[in-house]
């Protein structure tokens, strides 16, 4: 089918972005909103986004005008009669979506494809509200829609199989990569991404580390484009909360229960970027940290040579009476601390990537030692991430369960390794997909890290996925790709 005239219902952040994507690809777009105010807001989104591209020299003024000229706006659904495709991007409430689809089914010509951009609601339940279940499909875009390169094409058991390649082709025409998946809560990306974001909120609430330290650890240490709290603010805390609720209802996995902190912020209408404030948005003016001028240190344990060298080069010398004893570690260090004469001086240190140093303070570590450790890392060009002395510190505690979830997802047969990797790279801008990451860290390292997390938190889902365990036992270092 030739898709020339498309409609987008709901012009919030996602809907406006999707309308822009279609118009940029040369299609005519009808944008629909409930009232004139909402239409004006939607128009504002597209105007700002295209103006930004003009300002950056990515688009000429003429091209921007042509894009805007291809978008017409209306408050009347009846205007959608002739659309070849309608993409719904209204709030994530199943009853609203079902009633909209019933309406669209009545209004649109019989061959019109009805697509939903739902983040996690069952496409099957939405399709069932229409008399054209074979022509209902999920087209799931990622925020910001004009930038992220993925579209999840979600088919139900009722979808006409011929429609999947047609919509995938359309996604390619939009400059996106399609990944075709079945109708399970969260599809590929949200099923892997949101539990990680939720876990970050849980760990923040438990006081494992501070907001900015967790964001820095994942961005600068792991290399993700944004830290979890900055990303939650981009997605919208209400959306994240809703997706988590849907995931929990389907899986009953307590890790999928929305973090109470999310609920609190949503109730306070602190929804993230769209409301001006969420996890971020109320920063006090950054205060210059007080720096100790002279710091002495001692390095304990194995793997200390490189850090010692860097500290020496920066002018610091190991001392027999140090302010801080740094112990390279990727496991809790309290058992080492208690063997020391002065356990208050011990801080665990782990360099993540080449920009971050996780600094684990035990229950006995003094504030002076923790501060000395932080200042030393800053001086040698590493971003210090202060955290409590828990298995996995910050990065492994957030990264490894996500990798484990990806293995489990593949093992259920829901998606291929190639599709899961591509989905995370293109949908979230990750530098590598989970299987690529697993292989570069080492399957055995991740398996052992998960065992340590399991032993610490006793969380059933942290037990290494049987497939991962078996590959390690078999001495296999890469995943079997078809
Ligand atoms: N609209 C349009 N374009 C935008 C934009 C927006 N809101 N934000 C950024 N851009 C464009 C910029 O214009 C720039 O384009 P250019 O290279 O052509 O000049 C490009 O994106 C890069 O922007 P910046 O240099 O300003 O900023 P960054 O390099 O920091 O990138 C980012 C911003 C693209 C948002 C990047 O941080 C990123 O990839 N973050 C991850 C986002 C993500 O994970 N999204 C998925 C969320 S999950 C989801 O949406 C599913 C839902 O169901 C919950």
From TrEMBL:
Q: Which residues form the 3-hydroxyacyl-CoA dehydrogenase C-terminal domain?
A: 186-279, 392-475
GO MF annotations, alphabetized? 3-hydroxybutyryl-CoA dehydrogenase activity; NAD+ binding
InterPro entries attached to this UniProt entry: 3-OHacyl-CoA_DH_CS, 3-OHacyl-CoA_DH_NAD-bd, 3HC_DH_C, 6-PGluconate_DH-like_C_sf, 6PGD_dom2, NAD(P)-bd_dom_sf
Concerning Pfam families, the annotation shows: 3HCDH (PF00725), 3HCDH_N (PF02737)
The superkingdom of the source organism is Bacteria
Family affiliation: Belongs to the 3-hydroxyacyl-CoA dehydrogenase family.
Protein name per Swiss-Prot or TrEMBL: 3-hydroxybutyryl-CoA dehydrogenase
Give the organism, scientific name.
Nonomuraea glycinis
The lineage is: Bacteria, Bacillati, Actinomycetota, Actinomycetes, Streptosporangiales
């Amino acid at each position: 089918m030739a898709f020339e005239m498309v409609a987008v219902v709901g012009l919030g952040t996602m809907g406006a972005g999707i309308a822009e994507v279609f118009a940029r690809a040369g299609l005519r777009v009808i944008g629909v909103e409930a009232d004139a105010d909402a239409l004006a807001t939607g128009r504002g989104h597209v105007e700002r986004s295209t103006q930004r591209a003009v300002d950056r020299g990515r688009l000429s003024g003429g091209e921007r005008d042509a894009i805007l000229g291809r978008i017409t706006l209306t408050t009347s659904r009846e205007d959608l009669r002739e659309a070849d495709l309608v993409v719904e991007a209204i709030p994530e409430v199943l009853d609203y979506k079902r009633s909209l689809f019933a309406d669209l089914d009545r209004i649109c010509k019989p061959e019109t494809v009805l697509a939903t951009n739902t983040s996690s609601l069952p496409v099957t339940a939405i399709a069932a509200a229409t008399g054209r279940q074979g022509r209902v499909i999920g087209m799931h875009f990622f925020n910001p829609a004009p930038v992220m390169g993925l579209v999840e094409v979600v088919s139900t058991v009722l979808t006409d199989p011929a429609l999947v390649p047609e919509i995938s082709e359309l996604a390619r025409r939009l400059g996106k990569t399609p990944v075709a998946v079945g109708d399970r809560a969260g599809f590929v990306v949200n099923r892997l991404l949101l539990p990680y974001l939720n876990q970050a909120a849980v760990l923040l609430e438990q006081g494992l580390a501070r907001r900015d330290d967790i964001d820095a650890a994942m961005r600068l240490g792991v290399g993700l484009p944004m830290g979890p709290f900055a990303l939650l603010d981009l997605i919208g805390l209400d959306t994240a909360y809703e997706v988590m609720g849907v995931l929990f209802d389907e899986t009953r996995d307590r890790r999928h229960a929305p973090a109470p902190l999310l609920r609190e912020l949503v109730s306070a209408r602190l929804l993230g970027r769209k409301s001006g404030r969420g996890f971020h948005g109320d920063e006090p003016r950054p205060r210059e940290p007080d720096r100790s001028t002279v710091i002495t240190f001692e390095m304990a344990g194995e793997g200390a040579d490189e850090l010692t060298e860097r500290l020496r080069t920066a002018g610091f010398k190991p001392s027999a009476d140090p302010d801080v004893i740094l112990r390279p570690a990727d496991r809790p260090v309290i058992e080492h601390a208690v063997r020391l004469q002065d356990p208050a001086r011990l801080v665990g240190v782990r360099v993540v990537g080449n920009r971050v140093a996780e600094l684990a303070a035990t229950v006995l570590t003094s504030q002076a030692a923790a501060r000395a450790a932080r200042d030393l890392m800053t001086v040698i060009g590493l971003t210090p991430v202060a955290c409590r002395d828990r298995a996995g510190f910050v990065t492994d505690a957030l990264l490894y369960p996500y990798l484990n979830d990806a293995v489990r997802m593949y093992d259920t047969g829901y998606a291929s390794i190639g599709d899961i990797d591509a989905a995370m790279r293109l949908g979230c801008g990750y530098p590598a997909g989970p299987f690529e990451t697993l292989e570069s860290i080492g399957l055995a390292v991740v398996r052992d890290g998960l065992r340590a997390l399991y032993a610490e938190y006793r969380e059933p889902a942290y037990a290494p996925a049987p497939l991962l365990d078996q590959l390690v036992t078999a001495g296999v270092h890469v995943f079997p790709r078809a």
